[in-house]
Amino acid sequence: MPDPAADAPARSQRRLSPGRVRGVMALFVGLHSLSLLALWPTIARGEALGDLVLYRDWAVNAFRGDEIMGITTDWVYPLMAWLPIGVANLFGPNAYQIVWFAMVTILNFFATALLLRASADARHPYAAFVWLGTIAVLSPVAMLRLEGVVAPVVVMALLVLSRFPFIAGVMLAVATWIKVWPAAVIAAVVAARRGAGRIIPAGIIVTAGITVVASLTGGLSHLMSFLSLQTSRALQIESPLATIPMVLDGLGGSGFYQYYNKVLLTTELGGPVPELVAAISTWLLVAVIVTVAVIIWLQGRRGVDTRQLMLTGALALATALFVLNKVGSPQFMLWILPIVVVGMVTTDSWWSRPAMLTVAASVLTTIVFPLMYPLLLQVHLLPILILAARNALLVWLLVIAVIRLVRFKTLCPATGDSGDGCGGDSGTFAGSDAVAASETASGAEAGKGAKIADTDGSAAADAEADDASAHHAASRSGASSEPA
């Protein structure tokens, strides 16, 4: 009869090889070097690309003492978006592009390094590759928009959450006050009761600080303007909710029309049906978000694996924010990517499915924007169908995340391991918080040192070697937190 304890030393020695580490770092250097090369003509001219042109204008006006977005007037972004937008202008407008690039590169480096450290188990080395590869695919937005700053911060926050929940809470709160979507991660953490006692105070402190700053600068009346601006907007042509109207428009005779919103700088869809969809979308989004949060909370009370519950819940909430949003900008893929890659560094094979869907959706996103965006504006059918395929993948991702939330099993009564691989290691981080744990069996099997090393210190051994071996085999063969 095999002893599960005998596998512990072998598993603990399966570490990420130096060659793979060098491969990840080579990909990091190559990605950012190519990005710098592509941006160099713009940098040399002292200009900026993409949304950075708008960011730079805002920063220049504010530094001159003119209009300050979010302080003297309403703004589409939360107030702390000034942190990266202002920092990039510290060396003047001519250096704006290079400073922004350096800022994103530094944040990506630390996120990649933490992913590598958390991916120490050789069976799960690919999170950093997926992270960097998808950023490369999304580079037209990942290097030129606010999500490029927020995404690596969320990756780092999720990876340090177990050991430093208060610091993670501060990072997530700051990220939320730059772009709203990290609130989905905070909601999942709180609902799953994973470090909520530190996360909530951190968020309160950050929010209080921002409120004080807004009050002292006379901008308190504009503090929450980003919410009203979002709720009052029309249906953007790229949003998943606009998929059917856009397809009908591409086929002709729909009666819909496109127009450019000069305030929000985006192309939106008009007509009776798009207007109706836009009107009900906010209520639909709120209903789904509340429902998913309640599911997370109820499952947390049942005693499921809180890490997997939190990450799956965050994925469901972030994807719902995308799928049911009136906006569908390409950078929104960076709402999903951080959660997926952190999920990949757990030893749970379920995350390979969201990873494949995320990569595929990112490729289709970049094909549409920027490669085929002019054709999309001209209502050509091909980019509309590609966009529809991307949106279908996002809906699929939302569905599988919600299904997993609903079907989570409870903890194993004998070991405390999650029901997706009792006695195994399918719910744990592979490289962070590495602490070996053991439980000595009693009775007739007490002589067997049933000690199973788990890389984040949460696994324990069961006295019955038969049961532990069976569950360990199930975990190694790809069992997820869903029942068979």
Structural features, described:
This protein is an all-alpha fold. Helices cover 59% and strands 2% of the residues. The protein is built from 20 helices and three strands. It has a three-stranded antiparallel beta sheet. A hairpin with a 4-residue loop joins strand 2 (257-261) and strand 3. The model is unreliable at 1-14, 411-428 and 430-484 (pLDDT under 50).
Q: In angstroms, what separates the terminal alpha carbons?
A: 26 Å
Strand order across the largest sheet: 1-3-2
Mean pLDDT level: 83
Rg (C-alpha, Å): 24 Å
Q: Helix- and strand-based class? A: mainly alpha
The fraction of residues assigned to DSSP E strands is under 5%
How many separate helices?
20
User: Percentage of helical residues?
Assistant: 55-70%
Shape: globular
Q: Point out poorly predicted stretches.
A: 1-14, 411-428, 430-484
Largest sheet: 3 strands, antiparallel
Q: Keyphrases for this structure?
A:
three-stranded antiparallel β-sheet; disordered C terminus; 20 helices; mainly alpha; 484 residues
Short note summarizing the structure:
The chain has 484 residues and is mainly α. 59% of the residues lie in helices and 2% in strands.
Q: What is the topological layout?
A:
Layout lengths: L6 H7 L4 H27 L7 H12 L18 H6 L8 H23 L8 H11 L1 H4 L4 H14 L4 H12 L6 H9 L4 H21 L8 H7 L3 E2 L6 H9 L5 E5 L4 E5 L1 H31 L3 H18 L9 H12 L7 H20 L1 H5 L3 H27 L57 H12 L8
